[in-house]
């Protein structure tokens, strides 16, 4: 494999890794958004639940109902705390994915710069070879032309 082909292969692999990192980041952000929506939904439900449960009489069966409401609100509070932890985990993962993507983009950019430098160097080398051929051709023409003049004059 030639160096350019090898470098092109490395760039392709780096591009694939960058694209995969971008997909993971998009998925992580989507999960974070879903977790935030669920947390918001649970929080709104908690705020509205006491009004929906009613303010019954604290005597008799209403005391049992109120105990059930309090138990439900405790479980709802636990669900909210759990969802907050889930949101934090999703956001942490999204941040990690962002940094992985940034690192992959940096690697890819470095490889592309290296390829551009190699291409530019190749172009400069080709121009030097062309100039050398042109100079040698001109030098030969001058030598043979001068020799041809000498032969004709004799």
Structure, explained:
Helices cover 94% and strands 0% of the residues. It has helices spanning 3-53, 61-153. With 154 residues, it is mostly helical. The longest helix has 93 residues, at 61-153. The protein has 2 helices and no strands.
Keyphrases for this structure?
single chain, 154 residues, mainly alpha, Helix Hairpins, 2 helices
Largest sheet: none
Please write the CATH class name: Mainly Alpha
The proportion of strand residues reads under 5%
Low-confidence stretches: none
Instruction: Kindly provide the radius of gyration, computed on alpha-carbon positions and rounded to a whole number of angstroms.
Output: 38 Å
CATH architecture: Orthogonal Bundle
- SSE order, one letter for each helix or strand: HH
Q: From the helix content, strand content and strand pairing, which structural class follows?
A: mainly alpha
Overall tally of domains: 1
The total count of helices amounts to 2
Explain briefly what this protein structure is.
The protein is mainly α and 154 residues long. 94% of the residues lie in helices and 0% in strands. The chain contains 2 helices and no strands.
Give the topology, please.
Elements: H1 3-53, H2 61-153
């Amino acid at each position: 494999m030639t160096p350019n082909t090898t470098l092109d292969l490395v760039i392709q692999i780096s591009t694939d890794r960058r694209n995969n990192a971008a997909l993971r980041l998009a998925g992580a952000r989507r999960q974070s958004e879903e977790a935030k929506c669920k947390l918001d939904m649970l929080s709104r439900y908690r705020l509205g639940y006491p009004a929906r449960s009613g303010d019954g009489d604290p005597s008799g069966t209403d005391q049992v109902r109120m105990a059930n409401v309090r138990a439900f609100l405790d479980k709802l509070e636990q669900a909210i705390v759990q969802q907050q932890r889930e949101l934090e985990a999703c956001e942490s993962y999204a941040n990690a994915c962002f940094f992985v993507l940034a690192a992959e983009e940096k690697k890819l950019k470095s490889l592309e710069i290296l390829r551009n430098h190699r291409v530019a160097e190749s172009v400069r080398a080709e121009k030097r070879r062309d100039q050398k051929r042109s100079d040698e051709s001109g030098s030969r023409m001058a030598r043979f032309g001068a020799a041809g003049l000498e032969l004709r004059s004799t």
